[in-house]
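Tokens as discussed.
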């Protein structure tokens, strides 16, 4: 069996062993197992790790973007009040799924057998 990169499997939200089966049933619910190779996903638990990474990365990006916007264009306050409450949840949801999948794939790769 070929080795699947945990980063490739994580970004595609696929099984860390075969790289083909889907990892999630819904937005963030992990399947009990892979539909292709039968790998049991119940032992893999990334915990709060993905949320921590997303909060730190998204927080830095939003603060840098807000400061850049303010320094270059000096928009009215309502622009900030409208823009960032939309961008933050969309960015968090968009990043959380691949980060969770990547941490599950890294757990699988580095698990002591």
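Sequence:
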């Amino acid at each position: 069996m070929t080795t699947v990169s945990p980063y490739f499997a994580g970004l595609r939200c696929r099984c860390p062993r075969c790289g083909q089966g889907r990892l999630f049933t819904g937005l963030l619910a992990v399947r009990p197992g892979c539909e292709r190779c039968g790998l049991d996903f119940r032992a893999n638990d990334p915990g709060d790790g993905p949320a921590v990474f997303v909060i730190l990365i998204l927080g830095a990006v939003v603060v840098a973007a807000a400061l850049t916007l303010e320094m270059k264009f000096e928009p009215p306050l309502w622009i900030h009040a409208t823009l960032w409450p939309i961008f933050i949840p969309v960015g968090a949801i968009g990043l959380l799924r691949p980060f969770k999948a990547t941490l599950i794939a890294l757990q699988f790769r580095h698990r002591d057998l």
